[in-house]
Every structure is written in structure tokens, then in C-alpha cells.
Amino acid sequence: MSAPREGIRVPEARTVQPGGWLGLLGGGQLGRMFCHAAQGMGYRVAVLDPIADCPAGAVADLHIRAAYDDEAGLAQLAERCTAVTTEFENVPAASLEKLAQRCQVSPAAGAVAIAQDRIAEKSYIASIGVPVAPYAEIRSETDIASAPASLFPGILKVARLGYDGKGQARVESPAEARAAFASFGNVPCVLEARLPLEFEVSVVVARGFDGEVVTYPVAENVHRDGILAVSTVPSPRASADIVRRASAAALQVAVGLDYCGVLCVEFFVLQDDRLIVNEIAPRPHNSGHYSIDACVTSQFEQQVRVLAGMPLGATDLLAPAVMLNVLGDIWFAQGGHAAEPPWGRALESAWAKLHLYGKTEARRGRKMGHVTCLGADRAQAERSAAQVAAALGIAFP
Ligand code: ADP
Ligand code: MG
To answer: Do 210 and 154 sit in the same domain of this protein?
Structure first.
């Protein structure tokens, strides 16, 4: 799985030694887990995020409270840090470019810009010969009228700023697509054919400055209401051939972008075993959280290593894993007002590892944490997950 590329090592001058400062744009849960990994290796982390009580702000060595395009905040980050990365894919590309004049920034602004925009993303992926869902760019009502009938039933997705199923509408006809387009404020969209999914998988890739690449084990993902609910590793349904093809396609996406950092590629597996790229994320991904407990090197430690110019770590799976996302919904199991879930009961499963992101307010659909259930084999991990899910009131499988 780990396939170090032959080549020039990162010059020592480009590495950041432990004790040095790493910078992060974005202070959400991904940033918090980055801080844990970085600090575990002796690094210090400065996080730029406008929100006072953001998850990473509470653990970072320095929290710069500023907007992502704030000149003074960006200058402070660049002054403090040798190398900067992002955990938030919607950070303005101009901010990354500005930082890049003063410190080492990865992934590069160009790669992030592609992942930020579904139109650019799909055309890039198709251009390297990797299949995407049939789609049309929608910039006006006329584009809906001229979209092929084969795109219906379809999904209209805003090109920018959508996440966790937000900014998406299932549409049965051009009339419904027009209504959805108007409801999104006529912003650029993609209209995608709704595909018969057999299941979904994802692959996390890390690529260093010297081109060294590693892929993580393929995760099989179940979404509910457009939000990731469960990831299982190894994937119960992916054949060895699908695992091989998904890993190869993910590498191709990363290499084609000359990507430096951690990247996740989400795939659809169709009934005829065809593999389609759904979308990419220029950062660690929810479907890779299992790697914290189940792999030699977590996706966050890998992000630290790339940023610091250190050699990449092995990605081998130490134990089968089932990751359950913990959404704010379970705080409202009793109806009315929020009540703390029974964590102790969940942890009666001795193979369960609880991760909470320190968010003070639980809201329905909000990612509050996750539980990774391990096992000597997949059946045991699944039994642990079933026990945790029952205790917390999460649907499983
Ligand atoms: P987000 O950026 O919110 O994660 P996605 O484009 O990944 O949005 O869509 C969320 C989920 O919706 C997918 O994981 C998949 O389950 C479903 N979905 C999205 N696009 C399609 C499609 N073209 N056909 C069938 N299901 C889809
Ligand atoms: Mg997605």
C-alpha cells in the first residue's frame, strides 16, 4: 500500500523540525485532530479561524481569530509559521496565494480551487480519463432546457460551497430543475444523472513534496440524508479488483494535480462494477477518521508529515474498523431539549474509541464526534459498532 517514489528527498532546509510552528486555515474538527497529531510529534500549531469557540481553537497553541481573507490575520499566520495547510476547502484561493509569498503552502491554491468548484473538479477528473457521473454545467435556465433528457432523474448541485448534502436537490424533470436552480439563487450548478449506486467507497491519499505517495485502505461508506453515517474498513463489498482500481484512480487524481498533502477521493460503485468519482476533498476526510485508531499512521499525522517535509508513515490497517458518525440528533432522542448521550453505556464495548470535537451546542445534522469500533476481525468490529449504536440510538447497519 505504501509506495514510496524514487526521487529527490525533501531538502533539509524545507523541513520543519519538531518544536517549529505549523499553520492551519480553519478551526473545525479536522483542524482539532490535526493539532492533536502535530502536538503529539512536538510541533506547535497556529490556527486561523474567525469563530471564538471553534473546535481547534481550544487546543491550538495559537488561535488567530480572523476571517479567511483578513490581511492582518494572514500576515500573523505567515510570520509565525514555516508551513501552512488548510482543513477547510472553501478558504479563498487568494488567501493561499498571499500566504505562499511568505511561507510554504500546501496543497497549492490551484489544486484547492479545483476541489472547491464542482464544475472545475468534474472537468479535471474527466480530463485525466477517470469517469465521473454524466453531467451538465448549469449557469442559466437555458442550460437546463438544453440538458440531455438522460440526466433525469437527476441531482442539481451548487458548484460551490455545498457540503453534507446541502445545496443539492433531487429533480425529476427540467421544470423541477428550474425551480431548484431558482431556489439556490441562480448560482452556477451541475446537473448530474442520478446513478444506480451499488455502494460507495473512498480512498485517502497522501503525497509529499518529493512525490512520495501512499494510499489508505479503501473505506466503504453509508450516507444518511446526504451525511456520512458509517465507514467500514476493509470494505465488505469491494472486490480486490475494485480496491485496486479505486486506489489507482485516487493516485492518478493526486499526481495529476501535482498535489502535496492529504486528499480524499469519493467514489460510486455501480451495479455493473463501474467505478465513478463523485468528488474530491483537498484535506483529511470524515471517511478517513478510522485511521486514527486503526492504521499505523493516521490521516492527520500524515498531513503533519507532508507539511513538515518529513517522510510519510505506513498506512497499513492494524485492525478492521467500523466508524460511526455522532451527529447532534442523538442529543434530542428524548424529544424537546438537548440531553447528553449515555457515553458510558457506549464505552461498555471495550473495542470502541470515542472522539468528541468539543462543540458546545448540539444541533440536528451537526457532526459532534465519531466512534471507531475495532475488532480482531470485521465481525467483531461490527458487533462492537452494533452495541455502541444501540446504546447511543444511532441506526446501524
Ligand atoms: P456532499 O458534498 O454534500 O458530500 P455529494 O455530491 O458527495 O455531496 O453527495 C452526497 C451523497 O448523495 C453521496 O455520497 C451519494 O450518496 C448521494 N449522491 C450524490 N450524487 C449522486 C448521484 N449522481 N447519483 C446517486 N446518488 C448521488
Ligand atoms: Mg460527498
So the answer is: no
Q: What's the CA-to-centroid distance between 320 and ligand 2, angstroms?
A: 23
Q: How many domains does the chain have?
A: 3
**What stretches in the chain show pLDDT beneath 70?**
1-13
Ligand 1 in reach of 224 Cβ (< 6 A)? no
CATH number of the domain within which 138 lies: 3.30.1490.20
- Give CA separation, 83 vs 46, 58, 73, 87, 107, in Å: 10, 21, 15, 14, 11
- Which residues span the domain enclosing 97? 2-115
165 CA from centroid of ligand 1 (Å)? 7
DSSP assignments along 160-226, one per residue: BS--TTTTEEEESSHHHHHHHHHHTTS--EEEEEPP-EEEEEEEEEEE-TT--EEEPPPEEEEEETT
Residue located nearest, by CA, to atom 8 of ligand 1:
165
For residue 167, the ligand closest to its alpha carbon is 1
Ligand showing the shortest atom-to-Cα distance for residue 224: 1
Is the pTM here over 0.90, yes or no? yes
Q: From the CA of 168, how far away is ligand 1's center (Å)?
A: 9
